[in-house]
């Protein structure tokens, strides 16, 4: 998270903050990332919503802000990475119309 926020000096990155009753309840960090095809995508690096603000549209609003940011820069695609075991995040993005497309495999080293 610290790395994403430190990138804000880069003109190809940004952040949006959600507030409710004067209290920060979430944020999203966005940047641009090159796809292997050469196309540049909007990339959501961090999406955080306070537990007490889950399920009321804060995450959806933050993703929409990230998508609007990408559109304003002429981007046609948004990419998000999440862990395979993070079922709540995967359900959240699927409900917003995101499709899973890449698979990363890993193995712990002794």
Helicity, as a percent range: 25-40%
Multimeric state? single chain
Mean pLDDT: 90
Rg over CA atoms, rounded to whole Å, is 15 Å
Treating each run of at least 4 consecutive H or I residues as one helix, how many helices? 3
Q: How many strand segments? A: 4
Q: What proportion strand?
A: 25-35%
- The helix/strand series, from N terminus to C terminus, equals HEEEHEH
Structural class by secondary-structure content: alpha+beta
Q: What gross morphology would you assign?
A: globular
Major beta sheet summary: 4 strands, mixed
Ranges where pLDDT stays below 50 over 5 or more residues in a row are none
Strand order of the largest sheet: 1-2-3-4
State the end-to-end CA separation.
Answer: 28 Å
Written account of the structure:
The chain is of the alpha+beta class and 110 residues long. The chain contains three helices and four strands. It has a four-stranded mixed β-sheet with strand order 1-2-3-4, with helices on one face.
Describe the secondary-structure layout.
Blueprint: H1 2-6, E1 13-20, E2 23-34, E3 40-49, H2 58-72, E4 78-80, H3 87-95
Parallel strand pairs: 3-4
Antiparallel strand pairs: 1-2, 2-3
């Amino acid at each position: 998270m610290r790395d994403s926020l430190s990138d804000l000096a880069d003109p190809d990155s940004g952040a949006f903050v959600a507030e409710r009753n004067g209290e920060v309840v979430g944020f999203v960090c966005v940047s641009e990332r090159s796809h292997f095809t050469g196309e540049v995508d909007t990339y959501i690096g961090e999406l955080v919503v306070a537990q007490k603000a889950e399920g009321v549209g804060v995450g959806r609003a933050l993703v929409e802000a990230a998508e609007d940011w990408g559109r304003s820069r002429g981007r046609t695609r948004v990419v998000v990475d999440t862990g395979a075991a993070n079922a709540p995040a995967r359900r959240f993005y699927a409900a917003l119309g995101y499709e899973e497309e890449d698979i990363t495999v890993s193995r712990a080293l002794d």
